[in-house]
């Protein structure tokens, strides 16, 4: 072996080393990040350490009285029947305030183009008079079920403020727009818009108007500004107004705490850990390959 | 004044005498005359020209076009429609045009501006380019059209007139060295006998001057004043493209004379050796034969671009697939139940009140007309997923190519300081095609050679002079440097062929034959007089000085003792100059006398001797020799003959072969060096013999009719025999600077080089040797028509003849393929004409492709083009044609890439070419460096483009799955527009312009074989294309799925904010920008600050854009309002997703290159690695480097290096033999025997 041949093989070696180092580096960074992430977003693996507690309850069918379950659509469209319903949540684990209340809809295409086309940003900002083009349909169906959360023994304070962006109620929803003439159409979904309150103050509407990305989504309703202990029972009284039966949607109510990463979602942490450990494996594999059969 | 005019008159006499029996002067035979007369006024022969009365041609029916020519593609009116049509013939452009039209009808998912603006931009840039190119063509036309020529107006007054204003019937006067403005009928010339000399190099590439001669009737029209009353009428054929025919007659002074091609002076040819001519315009402008012969240059597209079309088709079918998939699924019947969409329902139609009726005219979502809705949705989807088809690809490629072109044009290494010209890429379409060339078809004269002859060596009386070591020997011995000294010794001893004593001590390199200022450092009192065979040497120089057709130029600027000469071919000039240097100065010629000032060895003084020129036996390509019969002052008659060696050797007398053996040896060594050889011989003729022969000869000369030539030849035959060999001379057809080296490098790069020349076979072969296209140990096949077949003139016989030759040659090729010796094929024009016919051409091309080098000689411009086309079709390989003259135009246009040499005069080749070079040698750098780089750049760029658009476009499609295919777009319109325009365009342009896999030095000097990547198309193979599409699919999946699963359905921020469609869009888009920009960083191997700036700047730009766009009032920014500041920016999740997605989506590619580089490295990878080593350890001159280099060269068969290799082999063999013989002689010696057989052993 000449000097330079040795130099070259040293160089080869360093090429290999750099590749291995890159993989190891990815592994070393990703695995810890993944674990931290998992802790922040609640996981079965590290249950005791998890920061996020989430309770989900589907209520749309449960709230229909048994006799009406044969024809749920006619039940929910019948205005004469009161739709009151109450749900009780048992808190499995200590939940630190603020506890977010979300409603979740499944199989509901709020991101459908026809739906999105029907909204008019101008109308929301300036009122009905801007309803002058074909595509600017008014918002004829606000969504909400009137959720009236009540605690078991004492009344829980639910904060309905600050659930939307500041920029929204400052710039996108008019302060002087009162939606008294918005819901003139035949189709009204669930609740009614409050005609006396300006749109910029109807934050639940603003949240709703943030079009959901996917057909299955949660939206923030309010916050419980109070810690909940294990085995506390939260009873929620709500109006089961909104018709999801026609299109096979589901309605759920979610109580959840959040961490710095938001709600409960393992995917990011798992992905980080998986990629990190794969990189380490690949690094080991390449090293072995290199040792066994050097080029 | 009187003296001058008399000398001029004498000059005229000489000229006419010299060519007294040249074939083209023979008058038409009576039969031909009759035929011509019959043809006139028939259809096709209806043209009437009123000479000197151009005003008659202003009205019909004799209205002919002005002499204005135009080669532009468009004019002001046709530009817009035609250029637009050209643009929308591109599939992708047409698609975008449709998309733009649909956007007008609110069918499109995007805003109108975002669809129309890029289209206008793309088409606009391409059209601008067309316009600029056409403008240049226009300027060039303008230049030609505005040349001036002296034209007769009236009363014998000639004034300057622009070429474009010439009309048929005009009488013009053309001076020496000027081009003819149109096709002229020669009326008279400055020579008294009406002869003029024409250089037709631009038309047919032949270097010999052509002789044209006017009719005797018009001879008297040789003064300006004569034309005041001149009138004549010409009836002739209609304009056509046939260069060699012309039929017509002229009525002049009530007589009718037939006209022949020898009276026609063609446009694009040049007047030479004649002071002036008068002519009348017969064909003007676009009617001229030269213009009729030129074809409009076709627009060429590179291989990659053609393949790109296929990629577009693939992407388009992907597009149609996903679109139809979507539109079939999107309108499900149960959607009527999705009450929140307010779909019109048939059952409820009656319930509608008026205020709501407007909602139901939404044609996209009309369940009662599902087919219509689906159709509309399909169109919408086609446009929506249009990002799969990279519209900006075309723009970016155009921009990149223009920038590449600038880099090529500005390359200082491609600048020729002699001509002050640089390489010009005249079209930018073909840059990358330069990297894929496999065949080079080259012209000879003016391309490889400079059309200068240089006297190099001679062998007189069996002794070789000027025999220095050739370059090949030198290089071979350099490679074997350790063994050089003993070798030289042994070889010199064994063959003696290069015995190098130089009696004249002349320095070979220091004189050029053209301009006559030769500096041959002859010692005073030449040494050769001490030689033993003095008479032979003297005779040798006499042949040199007397046997020619040249005349000395009376140039006052020169000192009288050194003359310069003018002759029919540059070869003769070089002989005259050389003989002058050797002391035999040819100083005067009169009608029948030739005066030499020769060195007399006996008196050691220069004496002037007169030789009487008795006869001159013309050179012709069939005779291959020329002779003069002269008598000296003593009345002795000599026949001095020079000619091709084989011809001369056949005619030697028995006692004239004294030097034959030695001379033959020298001949072969000269030929090996690519020198052109001619043998000199003489004989003395008895007066009686001469007299009897002369009567026969004079008789033959006087004969009129087709048998004349035959008789003359026979007569010559009888006298040119029993010759005494004097020796041979070797002249060098001077190659342009750097040609052999360039050919060598090109050969190492794996290119095949074919030589196509209009010149003689011998010359072509010599150049073949000089350029190392041929070499001695090469098996050569010569295809030519046998004499029988040729004389029979039966196509069938000829075909059989050629076919047989081809088959036998091919058999040989097949048999000997495995051996070392390569094959060379030499074919001449006539044989080629047969060989290129339909049924023979496949066999011929099969043979030709299997030969290492192919030389075609005596081929016409048409044939050149035909060969090029057939080679292109048969082999399917990229061909490059290079030439300098108008005769190469066909070939240049036909080839995939046409290259014109701009160094010489004549612009036709350059005008037709795609690239113009000042010198042939620049081809090396143009192909091996720029071609290779451009190929790499463009293929990387296209692949990356496909990747990034697939990666981006597919995310749109995936999202549709989650919106029940309603056609909602995940991203804001402006994000999408920005994607190709700003956020990903600059890095890819930087890649396309600046990427280098290895440095130029390494491409060129060390590993020309790297070039092979282009012809093999490793960087743009289908597997690569599919690979990149798959990579794009993987990236898009990773990006989309990761975002979907991480952001949904729970909150993404601590304050409970759940990602809405805008946040999801912005986050996904961020991931895409990061991924595609990091991907390009991974594929870039040559980083400059520009790349860094463009890549990282693009990423930064996205955040800035998002910030600025989000800060605009919601009227403009819509849902992107404050999305970064209030939505995703504060969420740690957003940044973590970005990191994760970028790493994961790049991992597959990264692992792929790690594996490839470690276990299946490609050439450029290895070289890159070695280059890095070099930087660290300086290994360039170590063994391994050289070994790799050697490995990369091994398959070369032509070129200088190959010749050196062959030489080394033969040196080695010689050495071996030498050793053996020494060993034998030693072992055979009695002493050795006595030692070995001694009892002691």
Task: Provide an overview of this structure.
In chain A, α1 runs antiparallel to α7. In chain A, the strands form two sheets. A five-stranded antiparallel sheet of chain A has the order 1-8-3-6-5. Helices cover 32% and strands 17% of the residues of chain A. Chain A is of the alpha+beta class. Chain A has seven helices and eight strands; from the N terminus they run αβαββααββααβββα. The N terminus of chain A is likely disordered. The radius of gyration of chain B is 39 Å and the shape is globular. Chain B is of the alpha+beta class. Chain B starts with a helix and ends in a 5-residue tail after the last helix. Among the domains of chain B are: 149 residues, Calcium-transporting ATPase, cytoplasmic transduction domain A; 227 residues, Rossmann fold (3-Layer(aba) Sandwich); 200 residues, Calcium-transporting ATPase, cytoplasmic domain N (3-Layer(aba) Sandwich); 199 residues, no CATH class; 30 residues. At the A-B interface, α1, β3, α3, α5 and β6 of A face α34, α35, α38, α39 and α40 of B.
| Beta-strand segment tally of chain A | 8
The most extensive interface, with participating residues per chain, is: A-B, 80 and 81 residues
Let me know the average pLDDT of chain B. Answer: 78
The stretches of 5 or more residues of chain B where confidence is low (pLDDT under 50) are: 1-32, 346-360, 481-529
Biggest sheet, spatial arrangement of strands of chain B? 16-35-34-33-17-29-32-31-30
Q: Determine Rg of chain A (CA atoms, Å).
A: 27 Å
Q: Let me know the largest β-sheet of chain B.
A: 9 strands, mixed
Give the overall shape of chain B.
globular
Strand order of the largest sheet of chain A: 1-8-3-6-5
């Amino acid at each position: 072996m000449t000097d330079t041949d040795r130099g070259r093989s040293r160089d080869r070696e360093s090429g290999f080393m750099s590749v291995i180092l890159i993989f190891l580096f990815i592994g070393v960074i990703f695995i810890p990040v993944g674990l931290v992430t998992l802790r922040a977003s609640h996981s079965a693996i590290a249950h005791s350490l998890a920061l996020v507690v989430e309770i989900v309850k589907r209520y749309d069918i449960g709230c229909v009285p048994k006799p009406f379950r044969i024809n749920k659509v006619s039940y929910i469209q019948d205005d004469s029947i009161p739709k009151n319903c109450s749900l009780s949540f048992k808190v499995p684990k200590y939940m630190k305030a603020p506890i977010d209340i979300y409603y979740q809809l499944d199989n509901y295409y709020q991101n459908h183009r026809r739906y999105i086309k029907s909204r008019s940003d101008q109308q929301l900002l300036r009122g009905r008079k801007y309803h002058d083009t074909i595509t600017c349909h008014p918002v004829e169906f606000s969504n909400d079920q009137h959720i009236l959360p009540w605690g078991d023994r004492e009344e829980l304070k639910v904060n309905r403020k600050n659930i939307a962006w500041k920029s929204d109620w400052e710039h996108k929803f008019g302060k002087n727009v009162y939606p008294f003439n918005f819901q003139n159409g035949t189709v009204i979904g669930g609740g009614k818009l409050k005609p006396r309150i300006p749109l910029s103050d109807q934050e639940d509407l603003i949240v709703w108007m943030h079009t959901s990305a996917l057909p299955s989504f949660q939206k923030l309703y309010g916050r419980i500004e109070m810690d909940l202990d294990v085995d506390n029972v939260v009873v929620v009284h709500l109006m089961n107004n909104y018709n999801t039966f026609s299109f096979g949607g589901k309605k759920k109510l979610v109580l959840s705490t959040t961490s710095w990463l938001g709600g409960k979602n393992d995917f990011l942490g798992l992905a980080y850990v998986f990629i990190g450990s794969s990189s380490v494996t690949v690094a080991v594999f390449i090293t072995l390959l290199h040792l066994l059969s050097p080029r | 004044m009187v003296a001058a005019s008399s000398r001029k008159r004498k000059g005229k006499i000489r000229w006419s005498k010299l060519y007294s029996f040249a074939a083209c002067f023979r008058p038409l035979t009576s039969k031909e005359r009759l035929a011509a007369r019959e043809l006139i006024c028939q259809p096709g022969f209806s043209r009437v020209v009123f000479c000197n009365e151009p005003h008659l041609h202003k009205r019909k029916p004799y209205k002919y076009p002005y002499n204005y020519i135009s080669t532009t593609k468009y004019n002001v009116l046709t530009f817009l429609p035609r250029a637009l049509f050209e643009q929308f013939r591109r599939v992708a452009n047409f698609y975008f045009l449709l998309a733009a039209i649909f956007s007008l009808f609110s069918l499109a998912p995007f805003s109108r501006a975002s669809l129309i603006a890029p289209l206008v931009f793309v088409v606009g840039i391409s059209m601008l380019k067309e316009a600029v190119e056409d403008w240049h063509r226009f300027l060039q036309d303008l230049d030609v059209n505005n040349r001036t020529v002296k034209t007769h107006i009236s009363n014998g007054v000639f004034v300057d007139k622009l070429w474009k204003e010439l009309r048929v019937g005009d009488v013009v006067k053309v001076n020496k060295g000027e081009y003819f403005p149109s096709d002229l009928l020669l009326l008279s010339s400055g020579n008294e006998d009406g002869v003029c000399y024409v250089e037709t190099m631009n038309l047919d590439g032949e270097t010999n001057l052509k002789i044209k001669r006017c009719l005797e009737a018009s001879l008297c029209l040789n003064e300006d004043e004569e034309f005041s009353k001149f009138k004549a009428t010409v009836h002739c054929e209609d304009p056509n493209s046939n260069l060699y025919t012309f039929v017509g007659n002229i009525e002049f002074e009530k007589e009718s004379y037939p006209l022949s091609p020898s009276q026609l002076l063609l446009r694009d040819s040049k007047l030479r050796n004649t002071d002036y001519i008068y002519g009348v315009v017969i064909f003007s402008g676009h009617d001229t034969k030269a213009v009729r012969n030129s074809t409009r240059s076709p627009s060429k597209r590179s291989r990659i671009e053609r393949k790109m079309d296929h990629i577009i088709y693939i992407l388009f079918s992907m597009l149609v697939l996903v679109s139809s998939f979507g539109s079939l699924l999107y309108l499900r019947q149960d959607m009527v139940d999705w009450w929140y969409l307010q779909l019109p329902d048939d059952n409820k139609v009656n319930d509608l009140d008026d205020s709501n009726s407007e909602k139901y005219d939404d044609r996209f979502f009309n369940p009662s007309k599902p087919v219509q809705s689906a159709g509309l949705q399909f169109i919408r989807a086609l446009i929506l997923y249009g990002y799969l088809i990279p519209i900006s690809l075309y723009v970016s490629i155009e921009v990149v190519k223009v920038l590449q072109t600038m880099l090529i044009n500005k390359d200082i290494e491609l600048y020729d300081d002699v001509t002050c010209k640089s390489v010009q890429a005249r079209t930018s379409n073909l840059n990358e095609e330069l990297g894929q060339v496999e065949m080079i078809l080259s012209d000879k004269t003016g391309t490889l050679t400079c059309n200068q002859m240089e006297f190099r060596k001679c062998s007189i009386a069996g002794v070789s002079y000027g025999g220095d070591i050739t370059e090949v020997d030198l290089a071979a011995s350099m490679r074997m440097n350790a063994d050089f000294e003993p070798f030289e010794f042994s070889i010199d001893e064994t063959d003696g062929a290069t015995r190098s004593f130089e009696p004249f001590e002349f320095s070979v390199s220091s004189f050029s034959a053209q301009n006559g200022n030769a500096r041959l450092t002859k010692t005073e009192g030449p040494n050769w007089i001490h030689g033993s065979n003095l008479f032979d040497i003297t005779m040798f120089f006499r042949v040199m000085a007397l046997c020619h057709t040249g005349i000395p130029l009376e140039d006052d600027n020169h000192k009288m003792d050194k003359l310069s000469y003018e002759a029919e071919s540059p070869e003769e000039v070089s002989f005259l100059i050389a003989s002058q240097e050797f002391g035999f100065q040819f100083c005067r010629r009169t009608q029948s006398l030739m005066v030499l000032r020769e060195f007399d060895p006996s008196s050691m003084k220069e004496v002037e001797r007169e030789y009487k020129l008795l006869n001159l036996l013309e050179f012709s390509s069939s005779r291959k020799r020329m002779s003069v019969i002269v008598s000296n002052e003593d009345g002795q008659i000599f026949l001095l003959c020079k000619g091709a060696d084989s011809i001369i050797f056949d005619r030697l007398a028995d006692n004239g072969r004294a030097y034959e053996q030695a001379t033959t040896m020298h001949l072969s060594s000269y030929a090996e060096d690519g020198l052109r050889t001619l043998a000199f011989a003489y004989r003395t003729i008895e007066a009686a013999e001469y007299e009897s022969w002369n009567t026969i000869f004079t008789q033959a000369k006087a004969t009129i009719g087709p048998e004349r030539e035959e008789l003359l030849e026979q007569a010559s035959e009888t006298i040119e025999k029993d010759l005494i060999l004097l020796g041979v001379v070797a002249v060098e057809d001077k190659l342009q600077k750097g040609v052999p080296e360039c050919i060598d490098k090109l050969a190492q790069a794996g290119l095949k080089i074919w030589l196509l020349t209009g010149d003689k076979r011998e010359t072509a072969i010599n150049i073949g040797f000089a350029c190392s296209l041929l070499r001695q140990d090469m098996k050569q096949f010569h295809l030519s028509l046998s004499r029988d077949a040729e004389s029979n003139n039966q196509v069938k016989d000829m075909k059989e003849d050629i076919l047989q030759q081809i088959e036998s040659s091919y058999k040989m090729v097949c048999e000997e393929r495995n051996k070392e010796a390569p094959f060379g094929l030499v074919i001449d024009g006539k044989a080629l004409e047969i060989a290129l016919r339909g049924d023979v051409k496949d066999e011929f091309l099969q043979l030709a492709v299997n030969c290492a080098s192919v030389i075609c000689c005596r081929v016409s411009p048409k044939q050149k083009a035909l060969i090029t086309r057939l080679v292109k079709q048969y082999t399917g390989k990229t061909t490059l044609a290079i030439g300098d003259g108008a005769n190469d135009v066909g070939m240049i246009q036909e080839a995939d890439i046409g290259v014109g040499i701009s160094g010489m005069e004549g612009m036709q080749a350059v005008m037709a070419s795609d690239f113009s070079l000042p010198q042939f040698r620049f081809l090396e750098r143009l192909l091996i460096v720029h071609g290779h780089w451009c190929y790499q750049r463009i293929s990387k760029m296209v692949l990356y483009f496909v990747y990034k658009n697939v990666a981006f476009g597919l995310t749109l499609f995936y999202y549709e799955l989650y919106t029940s295919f309603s056609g909602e777009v995940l991203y804001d319109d402006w994000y999408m527009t920005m994607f190709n325009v700003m956020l990903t365009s600059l890095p890819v342009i930087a890649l396309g312009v600046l990427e280098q896999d290895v440095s130029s030095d390494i491409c060129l000097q060390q590993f020309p074989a790297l070039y092979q990547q282009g012809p093999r198309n490793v960087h743009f193979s289908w597997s690569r294309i599919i690979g990149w599409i798959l990579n794009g699919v993987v990236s898009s999946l990773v990006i989309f799925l990761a975002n979907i699963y991480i952001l949904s359905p729970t909150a993404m921020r601590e304050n409970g904010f759940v990602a809405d469609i805008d946040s999801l869009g912005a986050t996904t888009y961020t991931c895409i920008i990061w991924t595609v920009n990091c991907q390009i960083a991974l594929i870039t191997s040559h980083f400059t600050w520009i790349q860094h700036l463009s890549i990282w700047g693009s990423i930064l730009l996205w955040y800035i854009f998002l910030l600025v766009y989000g800060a605009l009032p919601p009227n403009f920014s819509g849902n992107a309002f404050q999305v970064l500041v209030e939505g995703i920016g504060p969420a740690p999740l957003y940044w973590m997703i970005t990191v994760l997605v970028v790493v994961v989506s790049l991992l597959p590619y990264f692992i792929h290159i790690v594996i490839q580089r470690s276990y299946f490295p490609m050439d450029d990878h290895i070289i890159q690695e070695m280059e890095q080593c070099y930087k660290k350890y300086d290994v360039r001159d170590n063994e391994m480097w050289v070994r790799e280099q050697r490995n990369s060269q091994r398959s070369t068969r032509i070129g200088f290096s190959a010749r050196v290799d062959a030489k080394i082999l033969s040196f080695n063999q010689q050495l071996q033999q030498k050793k053996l013989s020494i060993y034998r002689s030693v072992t055979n010696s009695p002493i050795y025997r006595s030692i070995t057989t001694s009892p002691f052993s």
